[in-house]
Amino acid sequence: MNRLVLFVPVLIFLALGILFFAGIGRENKEVLPSPLINKPFPNFILTQVEEGSKQLTQQDLIGKPMLVNVWATWCPTCKAEHEFLNTLAADGIRIVGINYKDDDAAAMQWLQDYGNPYEFNISDPDGMLGLELGVYGAPETFLVDGEGIIRAKHVGDLNPRVWEKYQPQFALMRAAASRPEESISDKGSE
Amino acid sequence: MMKSYLIALTMLLFSSLSLALVDGHEYPFDNQRDKDRFAQLAEELRCPKCQNQNLADSNAPIAKDLRNKVYEQIQAGQSDEEIVQYLVDRYGDFVRYKPAFKSYTLVLWLSPVVLFVIAIIVFVRLGRKKEKAAPLTEEELKKLAALKQQASDK
Fold this sequence. Notes:
The complex is a heterodimer. Chain A is an alpha/beta fold. Helix content of chain A is 42%, strand content 17%. Chain A is built from seven helices and seven strands; from the N terminus they run H-H-E-E-E-H-E-H-E-H-E-E-H-H. Chain A has helices at residues 2-5, 8-23, 76-90, 104-114, 128-132, 160-177, 180-189, and strands at residues 45-47, 55-57, 66-71, 95-100, 121-124, 140-144, 150-155. The longest helix of chain A has 18 residues, at 160-177. The longest helix of chain B has 26 residues, at 106-131. In chain B, helix 2 (32-44) packs antiparallel against helix 3 (61-75). Chain B folds into two domains: 17-100, Orthogonal Bundle (Helicase, Ruva Protein, domain 3); 104-153, no CATH class. Chain B is rod-shaped and about 95 Å long. Chain B has helices spanning 2-15, 32-44, 61-75, 80-91, 106-131, 138-153. By secondary structure, chain B is mainly α. Chain B has six helices and no strands. Chains A and B meet through loops of A and helix 3 and helix 4 of B.
């Protein structure tokens, strides 16, 4: 009986070995969970890319559910997803852009060259709004509901495969927004 | 017994962190205390973009932004906890190299202590077993003599 006890360390070692081996590669290192989910979009006062004199705040987002897309002309992946954003916009999906650490003139040129899927673009040359949003690499896309609450975040490019994952959630957000009495009762419970 | 303590001590020595220095030139402070705090925070906060580097080591633009933010907040008189919380609220617990002591990190924080205690118990018990070779009682001696007799009779 006592002899069997000697095998306990080996068994523990084997058990841990199996556990760690099974865990290897499971963690998705590309995507960090965002603590901003279900939190209101952060406050900001920034200008609009298209109209440098126009000031925008978080109030300008409230209305229809939208995608808030963080992009820049220096970001190759943003170029890769741009065509798909155009498609989404053509399907009637509201997209608001945050031009992240970029130059307004370069951004305007880009929109002229590749099409403009955005309702408007928020100019964030210093990346300060990006920091508030926990952005660590463009492109990033937030699903924001009609009341300005962040509901999901995607890091990396949007494409048909990724959109398949978010589309049902976005459809639900749109459905909720089009039923005004529900959103009023939501507000009452908060 | 002595040996096991020595081994444990040696292990403790190697567990301490080696600290690198932050390039302080970019961030002038008017007192040593804030300068040290900045260096400490830049060591303990992790760059979100570059997985295994802290803010002090990373050259990524985002790390620079976060360093600037930490600097700004120290200058604004925020406490270390407030600054860490500010970043955790935006980037998640990922930015801490020193995990918070919370219910879901209990295993992480306590398992080394628990294992250490178990190890000490095991060492102590192994040590005791050797000492336990107590002298035989009168009765046992008689029994032993009888057994010897029996063996030699055969």
